[in-house]
C-alpha cells in the first residue's frame, strides 16, 4: 500500500517538472478531442492557470445550477473544492462522472460541521426549544450535512440566494438552525430584521448554546466561519477610507458583521462582480474576498481602480490546491481511460441531500 502510494507520488511529481506551456497545449488538445463529452467548470476563486480552460465559471449557486442542467457531459472536471464536486455528483445523472483534480482540495468551513455534531446539536436544541425548528445549511457543507438537512425538511442556501431562502425558512418554523457559517447566517438574519437578541450561537465543539438571557430565539447559528473572509477587519476599511475618502468598499457576506456594516455593499461573489461591472469608470473599489478573484477583477476592469481590501490576505489555500499540474494529470488520466479522482456520494446520502438542494433550486427559480 505504502509502496503504491509512493509510486503514485513519484509518477505525479513529474508533472511539476514539465514545462507549463506543454501542459497548456496538451489540456487544450485533450479538451478539443473530448468535445461535449467533457465539461470543465471552475469556481471564481480558482487560479488563472486553471480558469483559462473553464467552459463555465461561477460561484457555488451558478455551478450547482450548471451541474443540474447539463445532461450531456459524461465527464465533469470540477475545479473547485470537495463539497462543490459532491454537490455536482448529487445533481447530475448516474452515468455522469465528476472529478476533482486534487482530492485534498477541501473547505475548512465545511469541515467545521460533521453529521455527528449536528445530530447532537439537534437533540439538544429540540429538547430545549421543541421540534418547531428548520435546519438550513450553507452549500459549503458536506453531503452528510445536506442529507441531514434534507431529511429534516430543511434547505440548502448559497450567499447568492440567502435572503430569499432564509425568508422562506423563517416562515416555515419558529426557530431556524443555520450552519455552518455563522457570519452569513448573522448577516442575513439581521438584514431581514431579526433582532440581534433573537439570534443565538451554537458552539459545536462544546455542544453549548449561547443566547441572551430570556431571549426569544428565532435563529441559532453554528459557530463556523471561513478562514479567508475572517481576515478582513474594520481597521482595514478605516485605513483605506482615511487614504482615499471617495473609495467604495465591498465585501463578501461571509465576513464578520462589523465588517459588513462598515462596507458600502456586501453580498455573494456574483454580487461583488456585478457591483464592479456597474460602477462608473474611475471608481476606486476595495474588495474583501478571495485574492485570486480580486486580482482577476483588477485585470479585467482596467477602467476602474479595483484593489485588495487586505493585500496581505491569503487566497484560499484549499482552492489553490487545484493547479495546472493537477489539471494536466486529471486530463491525461481521463484521456487514457484510467481512474482520476472521482467524487461519489453514497446513494442514501445523495437522495436526502438532493431533497435539500432541489428545494433550494426550486425556491431560487420562484
Ligand atoms: S474561501 Fe473559505 S468557504 Fe471558500 S473554500 Fe476556501 S475556506 Fe471554504
Amino acid at each position: 500500500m505504502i509502496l503504491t502510494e509512493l509510486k503514485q507520488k513519484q509518477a505525479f511529481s513529474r508533472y511539476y517538472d514539465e514545462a507549463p506551456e506543454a501542459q497548456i497545449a496538451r489540456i487544450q488538445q485533450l479538451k478539443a478531442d473530448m468535445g461535449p463529452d467533457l465539461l470543465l467548470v471552475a469556481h471564481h476563486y480558482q487560479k488563472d492557470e486553471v480558469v483559462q480552460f473553464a467552459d463555465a465559471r461561477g460561484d457555488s449557486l451558478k455551478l450547482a445550477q450548471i451541474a443540474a442542467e447539463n445532461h450531456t457531459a459524461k465527464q465533469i472536471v470540477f475545479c473547485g473544492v470537495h463539497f462543490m464536486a459532491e454537490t455536482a455528483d448529487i445533481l447530475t445523472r448516474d452515468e455522469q462522472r465528476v472529478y476533482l483534480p486534487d482530492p485534498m482540495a477541501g473547505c475548512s468551513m465545511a469541515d467545521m460541521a460533521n453529521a455527528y455534531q449536528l445530530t447532537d446539536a439537534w437533540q439538544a436544541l429540540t429538547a430545549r426549544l421543541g421540534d418547531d425548528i428548520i435546519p438550513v445549511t450553507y452549500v459549503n457543507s458536506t453531503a452528510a450535512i445536506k442529507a441531514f438537512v434534507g431529511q429534516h425538511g430543511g434547505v440548502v442556501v448559497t450567499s447568492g440566494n440567502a435572503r430569499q431562502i432564509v425568508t422562506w425558512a423563517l416562515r416555515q418554523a419558529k426557530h431556524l438552525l443555520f450552519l455552518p457559517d455563522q457570519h452569513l447566517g448573522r448577516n442575513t438574519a439581521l438584514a431581514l430584521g431579526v433582532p440581534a437578541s433573537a439570534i443565538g450561537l451554537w458552539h459545536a465543539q462544546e455542544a453549548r448554546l449561547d443566547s441572551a438571557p430570556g431571549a426569544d430565539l428565532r435563529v441559532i447559528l453554528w459557530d463556523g466561519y471561513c478562514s479567508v473572509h475572517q481576515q478582513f477587519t474594520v481597521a482595514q476599511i478605516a485605513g483605506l477610507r482615511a487614504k482615499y475618502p471617495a473609495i467604495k468598499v465591498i465585501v463578501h457576506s461571509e465576513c464578520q458583521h462589523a465588517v459588513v456594516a462598515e462596507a458600502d455593499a456586501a453580498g455573494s461573489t456574483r454580487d461583488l462582480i456585478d457591483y464592479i461591472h456597474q460602477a462608473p469608470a474611475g471608481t476606486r473599489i476595495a474588495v474583501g474576498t478571495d485574492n485570486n478573484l480580486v486580482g482577476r477583477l483588477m485585470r479585467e476592469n482596467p477602467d476602474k481602480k479595483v484593489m485588495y481590501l487586505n493585500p496581505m490576505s491569503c487566497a484560499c489555500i484549499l482552492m489553490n490546491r487545484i493547479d495546472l499540474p493537477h489539471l494536466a494529470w486529471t486530463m491525461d488520466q481521463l484521456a487514457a481511460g484510467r481512474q482520476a479522482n472521482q467524487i461519489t456520494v453514497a446513494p442514501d446520502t445523495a437522495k436526502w441531500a438532493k431533497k435539500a438542494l432541489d428545494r433550494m433550486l426550486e425556491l431560487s427559480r420562484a
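The chain has a mean pLDDT of 94. The longest helix spans residues 347-365.
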